[in-house]
Amino acid sequence: MGWMKVVEMSKPVGAETAIIGFPGVANVGEQVITYLVREKRAVPVMRIFSEYLIFPNNMVGISITEDGKFSLPSVSVFQLKDPPLILVTSDVQPVPWGSMEIANEILKALSNMGVRRIIVITGFVEESAAGKVIVFGNDGELLRAFLEADATKEDLIKVVVGLAGSVLGVAKIKGINSVVVSGVSPDYSPDPRAAKRVLQSLDSVFSLNLDFESLDRQIEEIDKIKSEILREIERRIREEQGLQGEGSESTEYVG
Question: Taking 50 as the threshold, does the pLDDT of residue 255 lie above it?
Answer without folding.
Answer: no
